[in-house]
Design goal:
The complex is a heterodimer of chains A (about 350) and B (about 375). With about 350 residues, chain A is mostly helical. Chain A is about 70% helix and about 5% strand. The mean pLDDT of chain B is about 85. The chains are: A mainly alpha (about 350), B mainly alpha (about 375). Chains A and B meet through helix 7 and helix 14 of A and helix 7 and helix 15 of B.
Chain lengths: ~350, ~375
């Protein structure tokens, strides 16, 4: 009797475990396990644990906002925002114009955000209008909208009349450099607020708080009437339309939000990284953000703030840990390969899941 | 009355062929500005036709099967590069080397193509974005093989292929003993223009094959699948299998095409040759007036000529206009991406329009029925 009970318990536990694995997804589990392994292995191969942790947290703080930018479009059923570079470009315009106009120090960051905002709103509105025209084919077109806008801006960075000597090529006096140092402008401006340093561990509190603020706003928005309507549009457009929700308007709003968050995201990234990267640099920036949120547990039509936080942490953890740990362990830098396979594999996994395609 | 319909016809023609017409305009404006001589231009274009057409033709088969633009053709290119790296390490040169590389690329292509086809079957309705991500994913695996496994696991002997550290392949593998062997085997010079007859003959054979293939049972099946998967399934066609076959064929042909491409170039950029190839081939095809669901051999030829004319003249013309050669470089990249974006948008809007048209017709028919009753 007791035995059968134990058996049954065992069975249910195994069953529950199985369903947990199914819900969590095998690739996700592998990636999380791999990261855990890296953290355990780190001290044994001579990499300092706390340095690794603070590197991961730092990179988390740089990238989290860009991953957050994925949330609104997933909620409204527009799929993964492969057009993230469009928002990034608005951010870059804000960044370069803020410096061009002569702002320095922390003010330049505020101004960069302020200048980037109208660009993001206009470009986002155009992009949203386009995506409303081509419902069902969003992801492929988003990818190519991103690519064309980046390559278009490549010409613009050369042609626009920038003059600030910190940004243009020294020799010819015109055309922006490929990388622009932010020293004296907004380098680490958020990270330095309330920064915590204990031995090798350093936590960029300000950046994390900034992300927390945006994440909280996003969470709060998703619980307002408009936010709920947006989620309704994503999960069942026909039902939403029947309930009197303007589907196109909701989708447009989500795209604008996503584009604006991408613009802010790149500015946060720059302040952590210390450089503005122009030209082809934004080209592939959508892919890490997309795979990060997917690793966190989101799917093509479902995402939450928790997915953003978990996903960014896992993804950036792997990006920062693999080079050092692998290098020390087997003297072979396979980090690039692992990063590509893990992140693209994750996107592939999400794309092949059966989800009702919203039309 | 007749004039009006003629005008309408012209408008329709322009509407249906907006991309090629735009390109003709770009070329017409840029050619005089660039200042290239006619013989130089023709020579370049003929070379590029020989180099690229085979690769682009491989895109036709998945389009026939309704799977859209096969961004996964990169997989075939990778297969060809793997084969060429091995062949050049075995030091088999000249025509035998090229033929051997083609044969060797077949098994690689089949494996990769089957993988790609299986994944695409799991992602019906979003084949293009999926095949696009597959090409990135496989690029990671390709790097794993070429950078780490070639040497310790797959024997590589010669130091001109291998990296000095003892494993992995150099950034650039020299194919000097294969360079343009295929093109020069039967080459004719007409007024300073070199025509690689053999390469064009091979392309011609492939064109004939595609025309013939369309009429076979399998080709008809593919078209049926491309029209409507459910109807095809009801008609007893194994939809999944047909789709996999179309991708495998495309990948194998892309492998052959890449060998032809690389023997013309004369060296392999081990880690980057394949990464752009898909984008340029797809852009060229679309420039020729193809769309996501319809493409012909004529589109391929027209596309190659227009796209590569733009590609040759744009940097020079850009430099002449703005005084900065980089502008032209960026311009042609922008145009390549812009064309793909535009074609995708046109295709999706057309699809939606026809869908709503069908809906309206259905509603009208229903209404008529009701009125009758």
């Amino acid at each position: 009797m007791n035995e059968t009970l134990a058996d049954r318990n065992n069975f249910t536990v195994r069953d529950r475990l199985k369903s947990m694995v199914r819900n969590f997804g095998l690739p996700r589990l592998i990636i999380a396990g791999f990261l855990l392994l890296l953290f355990i292995a780190a001290p044994f191969v001579g990499a300092d644990f706390w340095t690794q942790i603070s590197n991961t947290i730092n990179r988390f703080s740089w990238n989290a906002v860009m991953v957050l930018a994925m949330v609104p479009m997933i909620h409204s059923g527009c799929g993964l925002n492969f057009g993230l570079p469009l928002g990034i470009i608005s951010g870059l315009l804000g960044a370069t114009l803020s410096i061009e106009l002569g702002f320095t120090g922390p003010v330049s960051f505020v101004m960069a955000v302020a200048i980037a905002t109208p660009f993001a709103l206009i470009l986002g509105a155009g992009y949203g209008w386009l995506l409303n025209k081509i419902k069902g084919g969003e992801m492929m077109i988003a990818t190519y909208v991103g690519f064309s806008s980046v390559s278009f801006m490549c010409m613009m960075w050369l042609l626009l009349p920038y003059h600030s000597p910190t940004m243009v090529w020294g020799l010819s006096g015109k055309g922006l450099r490929t990388t622009i140092s932010l020293e004296g402008f907004y380098d680490k401006v958020l990270a330095n607020i309330l920064q915590i340093n204990i031995g090798n561990l350093s936590i960029p509190t300000g950046t994390l708080l900034f992300f927390a603020l945006l994440a909280w706003l996003m969470w709060a928005f998703l619980h307002t009437k408009t936010g709920t309507a947006m989620t309704a549009v994503g999960s069942n457009p026909t039902f939403a339309r029947a309930a009197g929700v303007n589907v196109d308007k909701m989708r447009m709003l989500s795209v604008v939000m996503s584009t604006w968050l991408a613009a802010i995201g790149i500015l946060v990234y720059e302040q952590g990284f210390g450089f503005i990267q122009l030209y082809m640099a934004p080209f592939y920036m959508a892919l890490p953000a997309v795979s990060a949120i997917l690793i966190g547990g989101a799917s093509v039509n479902k995402a939450s703030i928790g997915h953003v936080i978990l996903g960014t942490f896992l993804f950036q953890g792997i990006v920062t840990m693999t080079p050092t740990v692998m290098n020390n362990a087997i003297h072979m830098d396979m980090s690039e390969v692992i990063r590509v396979v893990a992140s693209q594999g994750m996107i592939l996994y999400a794309l092949t899941r059966k989800t009702e395609v919203t039309k | 009355m007749k004039n009006e319909s003629f005008g309408k016809k012209i408008l329709n023609f322009i509407g249906n062929n907006s991309v090629p017409i735009l390109f003709v305009l770009i070329c017409v404006i840029c050619i005089p500005i660039s200042g290239f001589s006619a013989s130089y231009l023709i020579n370049e274009i003929v070379t590029r036709m020989g180099r690229n057409i085979f690769l682009i033709l491989c895109l036709l088969i998945p389009i026939m099967a309704g799977m859209g633009l096969n961004f996964g053709m990169t997989l075939g290119a990778m297969a060809a590069e793997l084969a060429l790296i091995l062949v050049s390490d075995w030091q088999i040169w000249g025509i035998p080397g090229i033929v051997l590389a083609m044969i060797l690329s077949i098994p690689f292509s089949i494996v990769l193509g089957t993988f790609c086809g299986k994944i695409l079957n799991m992602a019906k309705g979003r084949e293009m974005i999926t095949s696009y991500i597959i090409s990135f994913f496989m690029n990671g695996i390709y790097q794993l093989i070429v950078l780490y496994m070639m040497g310790p696991i797959i024997p590589i002997k010669h130091s001109n292929v291998k990296l000095p550290r003892g494993y992995g392949i150099r950034n650039s593998v020299d194919l000097i003993h294969m360079r343009q062997y295929l093109d020069n085997l039967i080459a004719v010079r007409i007024g300073g223009v070199k025509i690689p007859v053999l390469t064009f003959l091979i392309i011609g054979v492939l064109c004939l094959f595609i025309i013939w293939f369309r009429k076979t049972k399998l080709g008809q099946d593919m078209r049926a699948v491309g029209q409507d998967m459910n109807v095809a399934r009801d008609a007893g066609i194994n939809v999944e299998r047909t789709r996999i076959i179309s991708i495998v064929m495309s990948t194998v042909l892309a492998g052959f095409g890449m060998v032809i491409y690389l023997q013309n170039m004369g060296n392999i950029a081990t880690y980057s040759s394949h990464s752009q190839i898909g984008m340029f081939c797809i852009a060229a095809l679309l420039v020729g007036g193809a769309s996501v669901d319809r493409a012909s051999i004529g589109n391929v030829f027209l596309g190659v000529i227009l796209f590569h004319t733009m590609f040759i003249v744009a940097p020079k013309a850009g430099a002449m206009i703005t005084g900065d050669s980089m502008i032209g470089e960026y311009f042609r990249v922008f145009i390549s991406y812009g064309v793909i974006t535009l074609s995708l948008i046109l295709y999706e809007t057309k699809k939606r329009k026809s869908k709503s048209l069908v809906g309206q017709q259905l509603a009208q028919a229903q209404k008529d029925e009701e009125e009758k009753a």
